[in-house]
Design goal:
Number of strands of chain A: 0
Distance between the termini of chain B: 46 Å
Largest interface: A-B, 29 and 47 residues
Number of domains of chain B: 2
CATH superfamily of the largest domain in chain B: RNA polymerase sigma factor, region 2, helix turn helix motif
Structural class of chain A: mainly alpha
Helix content of chain B: over 70%
Oligomer: heterodimer
Strand content of chain A: under 5%
Shape of chain B: globular
Chain lengths: ~260, ~170
């Protein structure tokens, strides 16, 4: 039986013609692009990734203590905000059936969506302000003490400070540093914010200089922390933050509140 | 040189190895294409060309989890389906009808056999046609399908059983 079936199947063998094979081969074979085998591509990709990771590790280690904006972290925060908004919508029993049954243009639906979007945007901006605040404060803490040390060395050489005077000067600078940190902290959370930060810095600087004048009978030329009012569009602010971003941020939030 | 070695060389850009794969499998794949698209020679030729073009471009990504022939047949079948879907509304020119009644009967029976083969699962049809149409040995079929020889023998046996069932079903219905 199998022999009969085999012959039956053999009898239905479709004919092929050499012309078709030669024609297709003539078109395909010359155009055959030498293919880099996938394993090599993977190895090459792995090497590239490894090299990139190495560079990233070096870059990471060489970064200052304060980090620039972490895009992934920001995205995660945005996602968390979005999830929270979905939860909020769920809490209001907003589901597809409701939206379908009730016109999507129903006021309560539109309001719910508008609220969710506005809340998400506000949350995102609040998160960003907090990140900027922390970076600014960290930058101030890292650099201010160095500037104080440099200023004290300069004053010591210029005015021949005694040990007691030096201790007093350091105390005044420490108070000034606390005021600076407070000012920066408030700048991002309401109160005197935006471009007024420069005016506020001027005011506390004048106060500090007054104390130093009382102490030393002169007004020192060097004031630590003077650059902190101008802080922002520099590498410490973050690799993705340019001057335009900083200005826009100040335009949008600095003058409000 | 076995198929796997040819594939590896082709993946490294060896044009002659790819040409050898074409010579070795072109007719076998073409006969599968005829199963899929029918007797229209122009359509079969077009599908074959597109199939081999796709094979030439995609061989770098061929993982070797299946045999080369199996992989090529999958591409051919996908291309045939794409072609049939695209041109379903167009009339298909069949092969010239044979003059004598005997030839017409033979042609009809061949079509019926091919229909029965089409109804077999790939895992049975592929070794069966490789053996009976391409006259490949069990070892060669194992090489083409990327299977152990024992598995090929088992599938050939079951393929014949399955074909018999389908054939009887088709011919009794006629």
């Amino acid at each position: 039986m199998h022999g009969d079936l085999d012959n039956l199947i053999r009898s239905a063998k479709p004919a092929t013609n050499d012309v078709a094979r030669q024609r297709v081969m003539a078109q395909v074979v010359p155009a055959f692009v030498p293919v880099v085998p996938t394993p090599w591509l993977r190895i090459a990709a792995a090497l590239v990734l490894a090299a990139a990771a190495g560079f990233a590790a070096v870059a990471w280690q060489s970064r200052p203590a304060t980090q620039g904006p972490d895009v992934v972290a920001e995205l995660q925060q945005d996602l968390a905000v979005a999830r929270a908004r979905v939860d909020a919508l769920n809490a209001r029993n907003l589901n597809v059936a409701d939206v379908s049954a009730d016109s999507p243009t129903a006021p309560w639906t539109q309001q719910a969506v508008a609220d969710a979007v506005r809340q998400a945007l506000e949350d995102r901006d609040r998160n960003r302000r907090e990140q900027h605040r922390e970076r600014h404060l960290a930058y101030a803490r890292r650099h201010y003490q160095q500037q104080v040390d440099a200023a004290v060395v300069s004053l010591r050489g210029e005015y021949r400070l005694s040990a007691e005077q030096e201790a007093e000067v350091r105390k005044v600078f420490a108070e000034h540093g606390t005021q600076v940190e407070t000012l920066i902290g408030r700048h991002y959370r309401g109160g005197p914010r935006g471009r007024d930060i420069s005016g506020d810095f001027d005011r506390i600087t004048q106060g500090t200089q007054g104390k130093l004048e009382t102490l030393l009978s002169v007004v020192p030329r060097i004031m630590p922390g003077a650059d902190l009012a101008e802080w922002g569009p520099n590498p410490d602010f973050g690799s993705t933050t340019d001057y335009e971003t900083w200005l826009n941020w100040n335009e949008q939030y600095g003058q409000a509140g | 040189m076995d198929t796997a070695a040819l594939v590896a060389r082709a993946q490294n850009g060896d044009r002659e190895a790819f040409a050898e794969l074409m010579r070795r499998f072109f007719d076998a794949v073409m006969r599968q294409i005829v199963l899929y698209v029918g007797a229209d020679r122009t359509t079969a030729d077009d599908v074959a060309q597109e199939t081999w073009w796709r094979i030439s471009r995609g061989i770098g990504g061929f993982s070797g989890r299946s045999g080369f022939y199996t992989w090529a047949c999958r591409i051919a079948r996908n291309e045939a389906h794409r072609r049939l879907k695209k041109y379903r509304a167009l009339p298909v020119l069949a092969e010239p009808v044979q003059d004598s009644k005997a030839e017409r009967d033979e042609h009809d029976r061949a079509e019926l056999v091919r229909e029965a083969l089409k109804r077999l699962p790939d895992k049975f049809r592929e070794p069966l046609v490789l053996e009976l149409w391409e006259e490949r040995s069990v070892r060669e079929i194992a090489d083409a399908l990327g299977l152990p020889e024992g598995t090929v023998k088992s599938r050939l046996f079951r393929a014949r059983e399955k074909f018999k069932e389908v054939w009887l079903e088709l011919t009794q219905g006629h």
